[in-house]
Write the structure tokens for this entry.
Amino acid sequence: MRRSRNSSSLPYILNMKWAPFFWSFVLACGCGVPPQAPSHNGGSAAQTSPANGNDLPPGFDIRVFAEGGDAGETAQITLVTELDVPEGSYVISALTERPYLGKFSVNWNDSSISAHSLLTESPISMPGLEPFEQVYVPMLMEPTVLRQTWNLPNASNTYSGKVFLVLEPQCVPYALDFTVEKETDGWACTYGEVHPEYPE
């Protein structure tokens, strides 16, 4: 397990239940086709190899941290997710209005947890051509820090959740399980390893 405590270094949605048509939605995210977005040298981004087993593509990782919310709001946290996107890959942003199940999301086990703020991205996602529907959607195409403040039922419990996304064009769904808990000097977050998570 990896652990963060009151990190100042450099979140989002209800519990997802896998639908029977999951792969239809994932394919709608353009699986297997790189986005038509220019790279820094002006050419098209190169496709990277898919992950084998639990091996992650080089340069891909997810980390999660918990920070205290507004002053006086002891049952409020800001969840900070650091997402490393490999060169040539992308993740559909949670800010898209299209109902892609493979977009970035944070899912809490406790459905009473509610979002206090909108999700923010730094740097902000950029429009990329989604190859299946041939529409431009916001994509995360470089290392990004995502932040969102959440209201918790109380500050005495431990809360668990999961970061989920589909890394494209590899078309591999990944998840990261995490737990946040209140300690005397603030909030602590423990998280496991990033792993492929396919529907059963």
